[in-house]
């Protein structure tokens, strides 16, 4: 795809937003390319975990202001629906997605990172939702995901002031899990992906599904989802293998994803 590259290393799919001359800003074509790559990743059973990153010195600097400048209300609504639907597809991908945030993650870039399951950041990364300073609102889920991740008060503060924060503050408020030197970021993301890949993938995907679904509902419904998932995994060969390894006190496990 033109602006989005997909590389596979063993069972890890590395998706790179590749528009460095525009700091990887999201225009309609980038969103369409990302949409197509997500379909490709979902269909590839050899991909267990996805790492999403940006080419050059930016993760994604935001949505493309040059494209948005001439938007009418109808244009803006259409663009928001487009980006929002792609980000929902990313969020609901059956495979875990790690954001490796290597630079600017502003506006749509911050929203893209928040649609991922786990966020790791470079020491040079910067996060923010600066839209109100441009006379618009966040358009790709920022008003919904940021309060779910960092709490309402902090989300209100960041969105309403348009303040940009550095990686360490992002870690302090729970927006990212860890911060690494720039040269270590992708290696650390690959280590994390490898740790996930080593586990039973049906269990991994069911666990992700339960977490995602549970965050959108009440505790009783969430626990019902979990009981269903637990039942599904108890009927797998991987459960037999994992428990057999535990009881036999052997470190090696041979999961078959069935």
TrEMBL record:
Pathway: Lipid metabolism; butanoate metabolism
Top-rank lineage group of the source organism: Bacteria
Record EC number: 4.2.1.150
GO BP term, example: fatty acid beta-oxidation
PROSITE patterns: ENOYL_COA_HYDRATASE
Annotated catalysed reactions: a short-chain (3S)-3-hydroxyacyl-CoA = a short-chain (2E)-enoyl-CoA + H2O
Keyword Lyase appears in the UniProt entry: yes
One example GO MF annotation: 3-hydroxyacyl-CoA dehydratase activity
Enzyme class: lyase
Pfam families linked to this entry: ECH_1 (PF00378)
Entry keywords, A to Z: Lyase
Assembly with partners or alone: Homotetramer.
Membership in a protein family: Belongs to the enoyl-CoA hydratase/isomerase family.
Protein name: short-chain-enoyl-CoA hydratase
């Amino acid at each position: 795809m033109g602006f989005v590259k997909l590389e596979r290393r063993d069972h890890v799919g590395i998706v790179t937003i590749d528009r460095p001359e525009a700091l990887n800003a999201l225009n309609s074509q980038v969103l369409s390319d990302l949409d197509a790559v997500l379909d490709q990743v979902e269909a590839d059973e050899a991909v267990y975990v996805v790492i999403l990153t940006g080419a050059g010195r930016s993760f994604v600097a935001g949505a493309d202001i040059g494209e948005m400048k001439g938007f009418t209300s109808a244009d803006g609504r259409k663009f928001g629906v487009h980006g929002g639907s792609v980000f929902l597809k990313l969020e609901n991908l059956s495979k875990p997605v790690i954001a490796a945030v290597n630079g600017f993650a502003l506006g749509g870039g911050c929203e893209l990172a928040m649609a991922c399951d786990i966020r790791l950041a470079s020491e040079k990364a910067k996060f923010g939702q600066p839209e109100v300073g441009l006379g618009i609102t966040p358009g790709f889920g920022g008003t919904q995901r940021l309060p779910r991740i960092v709490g309402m008060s902090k989300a209100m503060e960041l969105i309403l002031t348009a303040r940009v924060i550095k990686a360490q503050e992002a870690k302090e408020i729970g927006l990212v899990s860890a911060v690494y030197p720039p040269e270590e970021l992708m290696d650390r993301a690959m280590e994390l992906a490898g740790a996930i890949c080593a586990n039973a993938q049906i269990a991994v995907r069911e666990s992700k599904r339960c977490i995602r679904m549970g965050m959108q509902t009440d505790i009783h419904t969430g626990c019902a989802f979990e009981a269903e998932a637990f039942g599904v995994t108890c009927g797998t060969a991987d459960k037999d293998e994992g428990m057999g390894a535990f009881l036999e006190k052997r470190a090696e496990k041979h999961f078959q994803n069935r």
